[in-house]
Amino acid sequence: SAKEQGKNRVLHFDVQLARRAQMHREQQARLRLALVQGEFRVHFQPKIDLGDGRVVGVEALVRWQHPEQGLLPPLSFLANLQHTELDHLLGEWVLTQTLGQIERWCSQGLDLVASVNISPDHLLQPEFADRLAALLAAHPGVRPALLELEILESATVTDLNQAAATVSRCRELGVKVSLDDFGTGHSSLALLRYLPVDGLKIDQTFVRDLSTDRNDHALVNAVISLGAAFGCEVTAEGVETLDDAAELHCLGCRYAQGFGIARPMPVDRLDDWLDVWRAHPAWQGQPG
Ligand code: C2E
Ligand code: MG
Ligand code: MG
Ligand code: MG
Question: Where do the EAL domain residues begin and end (predicted)?
């Protein structure tokens, strides 16, 4: 009967839900194990000053070196961490790795600003700024201004007051804060009124079609002006060609990051890349 069919459907739905919940628990358990067993890696992508081609910093990007599946990109596993304690644990692990790396670079006389992506949940933890202060204290060789936090607009949606308070406290510690994927949110403009940030990162979806799409060109241009008006450092992400770099430079964008300059890489490869770039920069205010 129709009634029985309906009941079956409900049952089926419950089974699916239960299965999904079970899968989610298994994935979380696997991720916890990955953290304990040291399967995560931090890769670094260089960022240059378009004025002179100097490497000014790097962005830390997490990967999972999976024993069977190989190197997994963050978007394949970060969603499974959301709203769990693991999200904060992995976040602190990336911060710790990055601080250790900044310390090593400092000891080699290298002044590189390293940016770390902070998940919305992690940033909104009331103790985030205290934990960050403790991590900085544990790395006395690191000037706080060499650390930059990249936050997403979504971190401000649920609790703008908490986000703004945390951002202010982090900046009081001397750490820089930037808005990542700027322009993709619903209230990017309004945010600038409430969130005191040091930098804006123009989302790569706008940069990608810079040379062919008039709207994207106009948007990128507007964000660069906006950054200047608010005293923010502007970085373009997703710069895939030196032509894009030239256009961004022309529009007054100071910093750039993208495959056209360098891909994210493990730190041993970055050391070599830095040597090569210093000797033969592909960009020095114009193509080298
Ligand atoms: P994001 O912070 O906007 O980072 C930029 C992403 O764009 C990186 O992808 C980078 O590899 C990629 N990318 C850089 N240049 C180019 C380019 O020229 N062309 C193209 N097509 N892509 C480019 P990735 O490493 O896969 O990271 C994806 C996102 O995952 C990041 O976006 C960030 O939101 C998140 N993420 C990465 N690492 C972490 C982390 O440690 N913690 C947290 N919470 N999120 C992270
Ligand atoms: Mg980022
Ligand atoms: Mg981004
Ligand atoms: Mg992104």
Answer: 24-278
